[in-house]
Amino acid sequence: MIEKTTMDGQGDTQDLLDFEDGHYNASFETPLRPDAFELDDDTKIDLIEKHFKGIMQVLGMDMEDDSLKDTPKRVAKMYVKEIFSGLNPANKPKATLFKNSYRFKEMLVERDISVYSNCEHHFVPIVGKAHIGYISNGQVIGLSKLNRIVQYCSQRPQVQERLTIQISNFLKEALGTEDVAVIIDANHHCVSSRGIRDVGSSTITAEYSGKFLNSDTRNEFLKYIYK
């Protein structure tokens, strides 16, 4: 299955439809309540631990067993400090920029950046690769920051379309340019480990803006990442 997201010539993002689940979302910000950050991390961990212990008890697990008794705490810490840490803007990576002293005017491409996120519909992993391209308007970004941006946007409950756009928007803001391209190719465990249990399919999403809306520029980018 291939799903694509695009931007029109004025930079306005078009509405998206997740056809598989009949889920419509016209917002490209992660849906959060206004009070999302009123609780500190330690309080969130304590609350999640209690709730997850309740879930395990409902499932009939023996919470006195040595292998299970600390699982709620481990899961709570993992949620807050690791796999959903991208929800907290305090964890937003700083985009270190450098002057383009070499006056490099061609596109810069970093491909095969690891993506590890979680589907917001079932809270199971989305695993794949991101490919990023941009054309400098006078500044370049540290290469490792591209990986950190992908990681930050991925570490929250996601749908792949939104993730693709969030990475693109982050880069455009950081670099001060519209000339950005992002492609994600990922496997969804909500497809492979449940439901249809199809382990062979992947989902591709793409976001092009600025000069990448030109077919020649876009094809050059695709040639680099799929050679």
Please count the beta strands (DSSP E, at least 2 residues each): 9
CATH-scheme architecture of the largest domain: 2-Layer Sandwich
Give the topology string: H per helix, E per strand: EEHHEEEEHEHEHEH
Work out the radius of gyration. 20 Å
Unreliable stretches: 1-26
Q: Give the CA-based shape.
A: elongated
Largest sheet: 5 strands, mixed
Continuous helix count? 6
Please sum up the structure shown.
With 227 residues, this protein is of the alpha+beta class. Helix content is 33%, strand content 23%. The radius of gyration is 20 Å and the shape is elongated.
Helix-strand layout with pairing:
Layout: E1 16-18, E2 23-25, H1 41-58, H2 71-83, E3 97-99, E4 107-119, E5 125-135, E6 139-141, H3 143-154, E7 157-158, H4 160-175, E8 180-188, H5 189-192, E9 203-208, H6 215-225
Parallel strand pairs: 4-7
Antiparallel strand pairs: 1-2, 3-6, 4-5, 5-8, 8-9
Helix pairs in contact: 1-2, 3-4
